[in-house]
Amino acid sequence: MELDPVILSRIQFGFVVSFHAVFPVFTIGLASYVALLHGLFYKTGNAAWERLAAFWVKVFAVVFAMGVVSGIVMAFQFGTNWSNFSYASSNFIGPMLSYEVVTAFFLEAGFLGVLLFGRGKVPEGVHLFAALMVALGTFISAFWILSTNSWMQTPAGVELVDGHFFVKDWAAAIFNASLPYRFAHMAIASFLTGGFVVAGVSAWYLLIGRDVEANKRALSMCMWLLLVLAPAQAVVGDMHGINTLEHQPTKVAAMEGNWETQSGAPLLLFAWPDKEAQTNHFEIAIPKLASLILTHDPDGVVPGLKEVAPDKQPPVWFVFWSFRVMVAMGLLMIAVAFIGFYLRRGGRLYHSRPFLQTLRLMSIAPFFAVLAGWFVTEAGRSPWLVYGMMTQQEAVTPSLTGWMVLTTLIGYFLVYLVVFVTGSYYLTRVIRGGMQPELPHDEVETAMRPLSAAHESLDDDASRTVRS
Amino acid sequence: MEMINLTMIWALIIGFGVMMYILMDGFDLGVGILYPFAPDEHARDVMMNSVAPIWDGNETWLVLGGAGLLAAFPAVYTILLPALYLGVFLMLAGLIFRGIAFEFRFKSSRNRHWWNIAFSGGSFLATFCQGVVVGAYIQGFATEGHVYVGGAFDWLSPFTVITGLALVVGYALLGATWTIMKSEGEVQEWAYRITPKLLIAVLVGFGVISLYTPFVDEYVRERWFDHLGVFWVFPVLALCCAALIWRATSKRLEGQPFVATLGLFLFTYLGLIFSKWPYLVPPDITLWDAASAPESQLFLLLGVLFVIPMVLGYTAWSYWVFRGKVKEGGYH
Predict the structure, then answer these.
(1) Whether pLDDT at B120 is above 70
(2) Among B51, B90, B96, the residue to mutate for chain A (most A Cβ within 10 A)
(3) Which of A174, A265, A331, B311 is deepest in the core (most CB within 10 A)?
(4) What's the distance, CA A333 to chain centroid?
(5) Hey, what domains does chain B have and what are their CATH numbers?
């Protein structure tokens, strides 16, 4: 069997980046939540906020550490598997990715240590400031990455000379056409992820009757937040879709499973897109709805996949179904947010066990939505790596052979499996450990590593206090 | 002219970053390499505690160097990573395993044994791969334009295996002299005992590589023998450092062995750079061929000049906080 280095490299990059993306999307939302809790404590002096902040900052520390470990690999993937792309676009992506590193170091050197270990050691105002700076820093980090990605979707401000991109206009390249929509969509996604995880954990604490007062407050806050943000995400997503329709019509055609350019295009609830036959099987459709959503006119024209040759079309089936998973998760989140509002009005938000159980399950929904959304936008750009300018085939490392990629793909899978299993297992222990006050620690314990902010033992034999 | 200056500044920054990485991650990797040979579990606790608070700060230089290379000297990034493809994977796997072992060994007791293996195995693997990279760098890379055209295992040769093993011994020496500085009693005595043995092994490796290098690389041979007067400075200074290590260890001095070992590494590193200068991807690509566009180098320079003093300050501060001997029970 012939192993294709391009396909395997795509699978490898997809795997590594998906695994990595789960962590920052959560920490970005959680950092803002922690900053909010610190702000509330600073303003009201209510100890419940401080307890919540101290607990969630531990969770933040563990997830942040896992994000850093998985992120190191990302920094090398561009060179190992996509060296032609890295070389061609280095004038732009080099400084952009480096600025992300610079931001992360700035954040870690300046404020993360104070946030994680400063409680009781620095004035609460300074602690709050550190929390705000960490929250801001996570957004700045995300900005560089999303700008780079958006540039690959809607390239601007560069000139291609002898296969090498030269930046002619930094502002145009950085603030390219899809960045505002992608950034807003991801920022809200991060808040939704943080919100649903906090809501799910709070619901679990309420179900078992632990720290009821603090967790009622946490749950109440989250449900208000989700009530606003879940529908807002649908609106922003719609705007993002319209932006994509303008710049990457083929991607939208794949999302809709729309082969022919047509006015009054139907919305497909179910279909089996078949790229070989260039058609769909088993369609269940609502007439004119796709045109209405995309052009805000029931008779608007929606471009079809057949506008481009089959070898310039993305993997339609994958994009089509990823999009449906994302939308389904989004609708589910909106429904849960509204049910929560309804229960709150009846005074049953904290007592309805079926609802609290639902919230527990829902804490994983945003992760599925985020990954599915990225599958849509990344696979939907294919076969292009830099849209309209460089294909994946041109971008891959020339010296790479299929078995080399397969070897490292299996290798990264095994390494990440260990990291993920250990990290998740430890995270559940931190959450089970709950919000009991921390035992006093050794004075010298100001180690700056994120994970040393959490003290739960990894297995049952180690006592909580020994060397923790 | 402006471009030359920017490129030179970047060469200094990257060169400085790589040196910082070798010196700083070198001793904590060395501690991991010595782990299986430590006399007992108590010694292992002390050794791990001596590097636990600072090791990840040491690794920031690797990330900064990697990202900086892509931005300032993309040809290096896009030739070396494909050429070292499998070696890079092994190095990353080693660094990751050892990173999580740092975090979880102290949080675990029943499975501590497994974390010990992850820590020492990961340290050994990462170091060996880095040594192989040095050897592969001396050998040079098969390129056409800015594209690597060699095979999957060009980086693995008898020469690179020797450089790999030499770096393992070298980092172990850094780890041993670091342990001397940070420990007391039996652990320190053990470190004193192994230091001379490691030093001899390092010098043997040093000699073999020096004799071998002119045969794998013609450019270096010409350079060395054409500029004898200048180039012998570095090996001579390195040998002086070796003598200092020997003397300080037999006198049971605490700080000097480590400082002298840093010197040994520094002069070896400088010697290597000057042997290859101005080639950044031997044998064909110079500093200036590998550079990115001047506006890109300038754009990033602003941020880096801002963050490097911060990283240095933060590093100095954390070393200051954790100065002195490892206390009983550790920093954790």
Answers:
(1) yes
(2) B96
(3) A265
(4) 16
(5) 2-321 (1.20.1630.10)
Sequence-distant (≥ 6) Cβ neighbours of residue A148 within 8 angstroms: A92, A93, A96, A97
Q: In Å, what is the CA distance from B291 to each residue of A162, A164, A183, A382?
A: 16, 13, 31, 30
Q: Do A80 and B82 touch (CB under 8 A)?
A: yes
Q: Which residue has the tokens 């400075």?
A: B233
- Nearest chain A alpha carbon to B73: A90
Cβ atoms of residues B43 and B97 within 8 Å: no
Confidence band (pLDDT; 50, 70, 90) for B332?
very low
- A398–B81 C-beta distance less than 8 A: no
Q: Does A420 touch chain B (CB under 8 A)?
A: no
How far apart, in whole angstroms, are the C-alpha atoms of residue B168 and residue B26? 9
Answer whether A369's CB lies under 8 Å from A329's CB: yes
Going by pLDDT thresholds of 50, 70 and 90, the confidence category of residue B154 is very high
Minimal CA–CA distance to B25: which of B171, B194, B238, B200? B171
Q: Is A174 helix (H, G, I), strand (E, B) or coil?
A: helix
Nearest residue, CB atoms, B93 vs list A78, A166, A415: A415
Taking residues B310-328, what's their average pLDDT?
81
Please report, in angstroms and rounded to a whole number, the separation of the first and last CA atoms in chain A. Answer: 51
Quick one: three-class SS letters along chain B? CHHHHHHHHHHHHHHHHHHHHHHHHHHHHHHHHHHHHCCCHHHHHHHHHHHCCCHHHHHHHHHHHHHHHHHHCHHHHHHHHHHCHHHHHHHHHHHHHHHHHHHHCCCCCCCHHHHHHHHHHHHHHHHHHHHHHHHHHHHCCCEECCEECCCCCCCCCHHHHHHHHHHHHHHHHHHHHHHHHHCCHHHHHHHHHHHHHHHHHHHHHHHHHHHHHHHHCHHHHHHHHHCHHHHCHHHHHHHHHHHHHHHHHHCCCCCHHHHHHHHHHHHHHHHHHHHHCCEEECCCEEHHHHCCCHHHHHHHHHHHHHHHHHHHHHHHHHHHHCCCCCCCCCCC
Q: What is the distance between the alpha carbons of residues B174 and B33, in angstroms, rounded to a whole number?
A: 10
For residues B232 and B210, give the distance between their C-alpha atoms in angstroms, rounded to a whole number: 11
* B27 pLDDT more than 70: yes
CA nearest to A421 within chain B: B100
pLDDT tens digits for A420-431? 888 888 888 888
**A220 vs A52: CA distance, rounded Å:** 13
Residue the block writes with tokens 């993997």 = A315
φ, ψ dihedrals at B78, nearest 5°? -90, -5
d(CA A100, CA A141): 5
Q: pLDDT by residue (tens digit) across B46-68?
A: 998 888 878 777 777 888 888 89
Between B53, B88, B99, which is nearest A80 by CB? B88
Cross-strand partners of B148: B143
**Integer Cα distance of A242 and A178 in angstroms:** 10
Instruction: Give, to the nearest 10 degrees, the angle between helix B2-34 and helix B294-321.
Output: 40
Judged against a pLDDT cut of 80, whether residue A436 lies above it is answered with no
Structure token pair of residue A210 = 């632990």
Summarised one tens digit per residue, pLDDT across range B255-313 is 999 999 999 999 999 988 888 888 888 888 998 899 999 999 999 999 898 888 888 88
Instruction: Identify the bridge partners of residue A281 per DSSP, sorted by sequence position.
Output: A272
Q: Which residues of A touch B310 (CB under 8 A)?
A: 105-106, 109-110
Q: Retrieve residue A327's tokens.
A: 């939308």
Does A69 touch chain B if contact means CB atoms closer than 8 Å?
A: yes
- Report the C-alpha gap between A192 and B213 in whole angstroms: 58
Beta strands in A147-213 (DSSP E): 158-161, 164-167
How far apart are alpha carbons A205 and A189 in whole angstroms? 24
SS3 A346: coil
The residue-averaged pLDDT of A276-295 equals 91
Which amino acid is residue A334, in one-letter code? I
